[in-house]
UniProtKB/TrEMBL annotation:
The chain crosses the membrane at residues 74-98, 132-150, 171-191, 197-215, 236-257, 299-321. This is Ion transport domain-containing protein. The keyword 4Fe-4S does not apply. The lineage of its organism: Eukaryota, Metazoa, Chordata, Craniata, Vertebrata. Keywords: ANK repeat, Membrane, Metal-binding, Phosphoprotein, Repeat, Transmembrane, Transmembrane helix.
Length: 402
């Protein structure tokens, strides 16, 4: 149907042998100056069949022209700016204001040496002034991120904006959460609240993970980031629910088993939060069975640990590998077209965010050819000579029959 409509709206300029120059009407197709264009409908729909339009003329040529002329340079520049920005934020976190600890230790396990400085102590030396400049850049960047993301959330819708792969999906969750964590750090710093390391750690992880978003600008690694995105935010999220159930169950069992034992001899399970973390490390096989074999162990530890080893190591991890293998097989057939849809979404996003002077309209105005105020895209097509020859022979035989 789309091809039929394009054939009705095209204008042939000239034909010279196998070459044909055709003008295609871009009304309601080009996103420039249109509130709801065909390009935006393609990237926001969940129907896979709609993405096949990206391979048809003139959409294919229009997207290639926009991306090659404006989209790719601007996107690379945006990626470089974000990389410098996240490096600046990292340096501000690494050199955050700390001072020697003044309070006494509360337990033998307390080994803290430094503590957070108060606000009036954090900006005194010249080095603090340099860090303050970096922190102001970080805060300004977080505010810009929120101001750019929030209008799109209301325009597209929360479910579609965060859940659609072509629109960036989970990466928008990462960047919005990162910006919120930065603002939380600012509030905690201004109010002299201890514990800023928690939102700071989350912000660092989320900010650096969002660098993968800019891989969509590279044809070599762009399709593979889609596969990673599907695995992490699809299979891994479902697997985490199963893992949480297993860890909670066995961590509770381990804690109950060692609850009556000396915590100095069996330190991995001295309280319930530490038991959860130790069980998580056991689940990932980061550590071996954390048991002190120089003392008598409870009999139930052997049974519980044997059951945990079978369920966690043999069943759960192999289940994750099988789930990711199935996702790899399914996504491998559509990763290239999903990447093209992401390129279109990136182009439309940049076109709407940037000033008009930085992104002129693509195509030519129809007034130059007496076709009104509509804009057209010139496409030069080379026909197959063998096909033309067959068509001439068929027409000649038809004339002989008549």
């Amino acid at each position: 149907m789309f091809q039929h409509l394009m054939q009705r709206r095209k204008h042939i300029q000239w034909t010279y042998g196998p070459l044909t120059s055709t003008l295609y009407d871009l009304t309601e197709i080009d996103s420039w100056g249109e509130e709801q264009s065909l390009l935006e409908l393609i990237v926001t729909t969940k129907k896979r069949e709609a993405r096949q339009i990206l391979d048809l003329t003139p959409v294919k040529e229009l997207v290639s022209l926009k991306w090659r002329r404006y989209g790719r340079p601007y996107f690379y520049l945006l990626g470089a700016i974000y990389l410098l920005y996240i490096i600046c934020f990292t340096m501000c976190c690494v050199y955050r204001p700390l001072k020697p600890r003044t309070s006494n230790r509360t337990s033998p396990r307390d080994n803290g040496l430094l503590q957070q400085k108060l606000l009036q102590e954090a900006y005194v030396t010249p080095k603090d002034s340099v860090r303050l400049m970096g922190e102001l850049v970080t805060i300004l960047g977080a505010l810009i991120i929120l101001l750019l993301e929030i209008p799109d959330i209301f325009r597209v819708g929360v479910t579609r904006f965060f859940g659609h792969t072509s629109l960036g999906g989970p990466f928008h969750i990462l960047i919005v959460t990162y910006a919120c964590m930065v603002l939380v750090i600012v509030v905690m710093r201004l109010t002299n609240t201890n514990g800023e390391v928690i939102p700071m750690s989350f912000a660092l992880v989320l900010g650096w993970c969002n660098v993968m978003y800019f891989a969509r600008g590279f044809q070599m690694i762009g399709p593979f980031t889609i596969m990673i995105q599907k695995m992490i935010f699809g299979d891994l999220m479902r697997f985490c629910w199963l893992m949480a159930v297993v860890i909670l169950g066995f961590a509770s069992a381990f804690y109950i088993v060692f609850q009556t034992e000396d915590p100095h001899e069996l330190g991995h399970f001295y309280n319930y939060p530490m038991a959860l973390f130790s069980t998580f490390e056991l689940f990932l096989t980061v550590i071996d069975g954390p048991a002190n074999y120089d003392v008598d162990l409870p009999f139930m530890f052997c049974i519980t640990y044997a059951a945990f080893a079978i369920i966690a190591t043999l069943l759960m991890l192999n289940l994750l590998i099988a789930m990711m293998g199935d996702t790899h097989w399914r996504v491998a057939h559509e990763r290239d077209e999903l990447w093209r849809a992401q390129v279109v979404d990136t182009t439309v996003m940049l076109e709407r965010k940037l000033p008009r002077c930085l992104w002129p309209r693509s195509g030519i105005c129809g007034r130059e050819y007496g076709l009104g105020d509509h804009w057209y895209l010139r496409v030069e097509d080379r026909q197959d000579l063998n096909r033309q020859r067959v068509q001439r022979y068929a027409q000649a035989f038809q004339n002989l029959d008549n």
